[in-house]
User: Which sequence fits this backbone?
RNA sequence: GGUGGGGUGCCGGAGCGGUUGAACGGGCCUGUCUUGAAAACAGGUGUGUUCGCAAGAGCACCGUGAGUUCGAAUCUCACCCCCACCGCCA
C-alpha cells in the first residue's frame, strides 16, 4: 500500500496520480477526512486510557476512585468502538489507493497512451494460420477434451508441444539462473494477506480462484516477494534476484469474448517469473536490466517483437512503471503481449515489510520489481512464427 | 482424521491478575584496561502511533480477534500458525 504520509502531506500528488490512471480522486478526500476523524478519536481514547492507567496503579487508588473508573470504562467502550469503526473505514479506503505513477509514464486513458518504443526482428510471416488450428491439426493441442474435462479456457498440450513447453520453461529458468537469479518453486495456493500485501487485492480479487479459504496464485511474483517478508537486508546483499516457476490461475473475469479461441488467454498456464528486491536508487536501473533480460530471452527464438512503455491508464495498481514485450502473432497480424515487467517502488515492500539497512545505518523500505521470462504465450508466438507452408511447424532446436 | 505440546524482544528463555516494555543468559553497540586484540569490568541496546518546532510526553504492542476485570503477557472463548506421535494417502 501507499505510504500514508504521502497521502497526508502531498494529497495533490496522489490525486494527480489517480487521475492519470483514470480513477476517482474523491478517494483521497475521503481518506483525509477519515484520517482527521481518526486522529481526534484516538486522542480521546488515549486520554481516557491514560487517566485509567494512572488511577489503577495500585489497588488502593483503584478502590478509592471506583466510581470515576466505572465512568471511564463506559466512555472508553463507546470511544473505542468508534475508533475501530473509523480505523476500518480508513484502511478500506487507503488500500484502494494505487501506487504513484512514475514521471516518465505517458498519460492517457486505458491503453491509449501505451507507446511502442522499439521494434526488433524481421517479420517472416505477415499473416498465418492461428496456433490453435496448427496445433490441433497436428494433435499438439486438445481444447475440446479440455473443455469437457475442465471447462473453457483450459488446454491439453500434447506430443512435441508438451515437451517444447517444458523445455521452454526449463530454458527460461536456466537463463535466469545463469544471470544470477536464485531458482524457486513456490506454492501455488496462498493465504489472503499474500495478495493484499503484493497489491493484487482488493483490486484484482475477482480475477482470482478461491479454494476454501485460500487463493490460487495468478503469478509466482507474490510468492517470491513473500520470501522477503519481515526481512531487513544489508545494502550489500541487494539486489536480491529470484526466479520462480509456477502454474498460474486466473479467472479472466471481465474478458468475456476476448481471445476465446486457442490458448492465448487461459485459466491455467505455466510461467517463469523473476523478482528483484533492490534499493530505491537502483530500482530504475534494475527495471532496465529486467527488460533487457526479457528481450534477450525472446530474441534467441527469433520471434519479432516490440517493446511497449505502458501508459498510466493501463498500469497495475502496485506498479509505478511498466514495460510489455509484445511478440508478433501472424494469425492476428499484430503484436500481442507475451512479457511484462513492472517497477513497484516500495508499494509491495511496505506490505511485506521488506527493508534494507543503508550504508548510513538507516533502515528503509526496499523497492520490488518483477518480470516475465517465459509463459505459454511465448510458445504460441514461436509456433506461429515458425509455421511452414505445408502446415507443419519447425520448432527451434532448443525446444525439440 | 486422532492425541499431546507450543507460539514472549536479534536469539535462547522466565514471567503469584496490579510501578513488567517485560527477569536471567547470549548477541550487538559504547566506554575502561591493552602496543593491538582477546578476556575482564561499567554502561547502553524493540516497534508502531498520537500530540509537539523541538526537547519530550502519552497510548498501544508478549500469534490474531473477542471477552471477564477498577486493572490482563498473566484468566475465558474462538481462530491462525508451528512441533511431536498415531492413522490414512502420494
Assistant:
Amino acid at each position: 500500500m501507499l505510504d500514508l504520509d504521502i497521502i497526508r502531506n502531498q494529497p495533490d500528488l496522489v490525486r494527480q496520480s489517480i487521475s492519470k490512471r483514470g480513477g476517482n480522486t474523491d478517494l483521497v478526500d475521503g481518506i483525509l477526512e477519515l484520517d482527521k476523524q481518526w486522529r481526534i478519536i484516538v486522542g480521546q481514547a488515549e486520554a481516557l486510557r491514560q487517566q485509567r492507567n494512572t488511577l489503577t496503579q495500585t489497588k488502593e487508588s483503584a478502590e478509592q476512585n471506583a466510581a470515576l473508573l466505572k465512568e471511564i470504562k463506559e466512555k472508553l467502550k463507546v470511544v473505542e468502538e468508534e475508533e475501530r469503526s473509523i480505523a476500518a473505514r480508513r484502511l478500506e479506503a487507503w488500500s484502494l489507493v494505487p501506487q504513484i505513477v512514475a514521471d516518465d509514464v505517458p498519460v492517457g486513458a486505458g491503453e491509449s497512451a501505451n507507446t511502442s518504443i522499439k521494434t526488433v526482428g524481421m517479420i517472416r510471416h505477415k499473416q498465418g494460420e492461428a496456433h490453435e488450428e496448427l496445433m490441433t491439426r497436428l494433435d499438439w493441442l486438445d481444447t475440446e477434451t479440455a473443455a469437457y474435462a475442465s471447462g473453457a479456457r483450459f488446454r491439453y498440450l500434447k506430443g512435441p508441444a508438451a515437451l517444447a513447453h517444458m523445455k521452454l520453461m526449463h530454458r527460461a529458468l536456466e537463463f535466469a539462473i545463469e544471470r544470477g537469479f536464485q531458482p524457486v518453486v513456490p506454492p501455488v495456493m496462498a493465504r489472503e494477506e499474500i495478495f493484499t500485501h503484493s497489491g493484487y487485492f482488493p483490486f484484482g480479487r475477482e480475477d482470482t480462484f478461491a479454494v476454501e479459504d485460500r487463493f490460487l496464485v495468478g503469478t509466482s511474483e507474490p510468492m517470491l516477494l513473500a520470501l522477503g517478508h519481515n526481512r531487513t537486508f544489508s545494502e550489500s546483499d541487494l539486489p536480491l534476484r529470484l526466479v520462480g516457476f509456477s502454474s498460474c490461475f486466473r479467472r479472466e473475469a471481465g474478458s468475456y469474448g476476448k481471445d476465446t479461441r486457442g490458448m492465448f488467454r487461459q485459466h491455467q498456464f505455466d510461467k517463469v517469473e523473476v523478482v528483484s528486491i533492490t534499493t530505491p536508487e537502483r530500482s530504475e536501473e534494475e527495471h532496465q536490466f529486467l527488460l533487457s533480460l526479457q528481450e534477450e530471452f525472446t530474441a534467441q527464438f527469433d520471434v519479432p517483437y516490440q517493446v511497449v512503455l505502458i501508459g498510466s491508464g493501463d498500469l497495475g495498481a502496485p506498479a509505478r512503471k511498466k514495460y510489455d514485450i509484445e511478440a508478433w502473432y501472424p494469425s492476428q497480424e499484430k503484436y500481442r503481449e507475451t512479457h511484462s515487467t513492472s517497477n513497484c517502488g516500495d508499494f509491495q515492500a511496505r506490505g511485506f515489510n521488506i527493508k534494507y539497512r543503508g550504508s548510513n545505518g538507516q533502515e528503509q523500505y526496499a523497492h520490488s520489481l518483477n518480470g516475465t521470462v517465459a509463459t505459454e504465450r511465448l510458445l504460441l508466438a514461436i509456433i506461429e512464427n515458425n509455421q511452414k507452408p505445408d502446415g507443419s511447424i519447425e520448432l527451434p532446436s532448443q525446444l525439440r
